[in-house]
Amino acid sequence: MEHSLPNTISLLSRTPAALNALLRDLPEMWTLGDEGENTWSPFDVVGHLNHGERTDWMPRAKMILEFGEARAFEPFDRGGHQREVQGKSLGQLLDEFASLRSENLRELRALNLRPEDLERRGRHPALGVVTLSALLATWAAHDLTHLHQISRVMAHQYREAVGPWSVYLGVLQCASHSSS
Amino acid sequence: MEHSLPNTISLLSRTPAALNALLRDLPEMWTLGDEGENTWSPFDVVGHLNHGERTDWMPRAKMILEFGEARAFEPFDRGGHQREVQGKSLGQLLDEFASLRSENLRELRALNLRPEDLERRGRHPALGVVTLSALLATWAAHDLTHLHQISRVMAHQYREAVGPWSVYLGVLQCASHSSS
């Protein structure tokens, strides 16, 4: 399946409302529970998404358009959510996610990217040469990887409670392959 | 973590709105794409959730309260979503999910279950003796297993489009352990 910019934008524009509907005012067992030491709760994940909105996706897209392969992106700080979440409630983080995402999509649309722009190349500090198209597709898939993680982390809280049904619940067989 | 009935109800009451926010009017690439032969699209998953609302959770809860271990539940038909989805749009399925779930939660609340009721036992046709508590916890975890599946199936559509970033996206490393 090729990358489709309209389909990417459609998905990116829905994630904040989906997380809001799922998580806002949900009991803290679900939102603050994690999978053990050095793992993230849904609350942490929303902080991480906000950190990505500020430092990852659109800043990198603009770097590709401005500098091409000449300058590597700033490495993304996977611990950056710790500053993002400090002193904030989940409700605040969800509000910020909606507003950061909406502003970023406004900027993205304003770029009026043509198919040939999507083929423009930049330099990832670890992965090497990457296209703008792959960066934008990854932005959408990154939302999905964290929705996948949130559903897994939440299900983990009921690992014992479901009793013998655990064998039928795929999410409880999922290895922790998307901790970040 | 023990089962908490209020926490189960909190989660169950949010899933329809979360799926609605994520999926309604999303391009068909996302909602009808699956993971290959004999796998489910997000559209199919919503049909399966509706089938569960009609035939699985509350009917089984009521059987436990009425018959205890004396009568085994009807086996759940994992192909039952095929009839559920026939001739329907995703929008219709999402509307039905919201209304079936809301009616089932109204019935569940009306049972006024006490802690000792949650310990009552029934008989699963394959798993043997199970408690009402585990059944209700599984209802919530089952929502999460399918949210986990939907995010994985959607991410699969961009497996190629993300280029070298695929190595960082946990959801793309997830084996298909929740096909149903």
Q: What is the overall pLDDT average of chain A?
A: 95
Low-confidence stretches of chain A: none
| Estimated helix fraction of chain A | 55-70%
Main-sheet strand order of chain A equals: 1-2
Tell me the strand percentage band of chain A: under 5%
Using only CA atoms, what is the Rg of chain A? Answer: 18 Å
In DSSP terms, counting alpha (H) and pi (I) runs of 4 or more, how many helices of chain A? 8
Number of strands of chain A: 2
Oligomeric state of the chains in view: homodimer
Shape of chain A: elongated
Order of helices and strands of chain A: HHHHHHHEEH
Keywords:
180 residues; two-stranded antiparallel ribbon; elongated; mainly alpha; homodimer
Report on the architecture of this protein.
The structure is a homodimer of 180-residue chains. Chain A has 180 residues and is mainly α. The first copy, chain A, is built from eight helices and two strands, in the order H-H-H-H-H-H-H-E-E-H. Chain A has a two-stranded antiparallel sheet. The relative contact order of chain A is 0.18. The mean pLDDT of chain A is 95. The interface between A and B is large, with 64 and 63 residues.
